Request: fold
Amino acid sequence: MGTVIIEFSPTGGTDKVAQVIAQAWGGTGCVVDLTDPKTDFSACEVVPGDRAIIAMPVFGGTAPQVALERLGKIRGNGAACALVAVYGNRAFEHALADMGTAARSCGFTVVAGVAGVAEHSIARQFATDRPDVSRSRGVFARSASP
Reply:
């Protein structure tokens, strides 16, 4: 069983959070970069039995529409996935629900949702240097798997 990261991370904060989770699960096999407009996402497929981390930033309380559309082209084949909504210390509102709808529509089985805090991409004074293991209250120290 491998772990695939499917992420939209234009500033790198979402990638940091996804990588921390993947490392807690024992590492990652590959990364699908939803920020790359040249990728043919309809050619992407997760192998049944693998697990996925689907990670996106939160903009105005929701996941970016372009990221949801690109995710919708990937074939999940029933793979278990954890949804990760990464926000800059404001709120994640509907993001996990939006991501769940998109993930289920392309064949993933949603088994977990995570709201992760990362440094705000514009107002850097909010959540500065996050994610930060020393302020995680042990969350990142625990090993977890879906």
